[in-house]
């Protein structure tokens, strides 16, 4: 990604990260949940089809001609990928009713109920997952992108100089060097997702019974504390259970953030040592070159003197 495009995309994602969880939960519970209930097959087709269409775009890019690649530079892939994904969304929404009619018996919700025994609730774990992804992915992307940008360009250039392709340099050099930073970004995003309250509270249906089905409601520990703590009598069993749930939630979030910070510090030490080794190596090479630099200037005169002596 070019620096100009990065300067535009990253602030937009940081603005998405700054959206309050109440707003995201409101949109998910009152707008997204009824639409998914009416168009369940279309939603599932979109969830499956969009990642496949992104991979298809990469495959078509590899098979494209050189002239087309020059017109569509890879550094601006985020711009020309948007109309491609919009076209794929339109195709998926057009094909979803046909797929539901031909392969799913005309009603996906009835098929899930009769064959698999899954009830569909309007606000369920699927809605929570979509809303949580909208809230968490920008922060993960921002931190992971910083980790990739901080990888020394000399590593990638050295890999390409040794014969590696651009994809091999990215996969085996850049991602390996930025792996701890990407891992810490994922862990921080997981910590935020576990501690999120309002999105789960407004989009999950607050079902006290937990089920493995993604189409039924749920209730997280944070949402249970927010709902039941005002009604719990101090000193009672429910009060102590809520205190225990808060302690477990705090310990899990603390461990996740601590692990992410430890990995980040290890990454910084690795880069610092790498930079020190590269700097010292360059300094030693420069000193050796400077030590024998006088030979380059004196070489013509030495040759002339040797010729004169031989004559």
TrEMBL record:
Domain ABC transmembrane type-1: where?
1-260
Q: Which PROSITE patterns match?
A: ABC_TM1
InterPro entries reported for this sequence: MetI-like (IPR000515), MetI-like_sf (IPR035906)
Keywords, comma-separated and alphabetical: Membrane, Transmembrane, Transmembrane helix, Transport
Q: Pfam families, from UniProt?
A: BPD_transp_1
Record membrane topology: Multi-pass membrane protein
What's one GO-annotated cellular component? Answer: plasma membrane
Q: Where are the transmembrane segments?
A: 12-35, 41-64, 76-99, 125-144, 173-194, 239-263
Q: Where in the cell is it found?
A: Cell membrane
GO biological process: what's one of them? Answer: transmembrane transport
Question: What family name appears in the similarity comment?
Answer: Belongs to the binding-protein-dependent transport system permease family.
The name this protein carries in UniProt is ABC transmembrane type-1 domain-containing protein
- Origin species: Vreelandella sulfidaeris
